[in-house]
Model the fold of this input.
Amino acid sequence: MREATNYGFFLEGKRKLSIGFGNDQFIENSFLQKIFLGSNFPNPFSDGTVIPFRLPQGKDYEVELGVYDLMGRRAALLLDDVLTGGMYEIKWVGNDRSGKAVANGVYLYVLKVRQGQQEEKYLRKMVVR
Done:
């Protein structure tokens, strides 16, 4: 009998969804030991939104979370710190670096995670209305 199974669903050659079945050790090794940037909620938003992300356990990471307009200009820096592995939620109220509300529109939030010489970037979009 198989102890673990992992299914991946692809669209245009890119993995869109992973589903795993198995014991606790399989789940821990397969999913919880990967960096994850979740969808902000609510989206779209006007009064604030929460951005969830997860870092693998047992290590320290240099983490930066920024919000960018579609021209690539940074509207806000939400986080620039060293974090240990775990689940995090960062709230953004829609203000820029000077404290003023950003214009309505589409923005990207980018999570940069560094450990030693290795850096990974993850991004998602959100709508401010």
The CA atoms of residues 113 and 119 lie 6 Å apart.
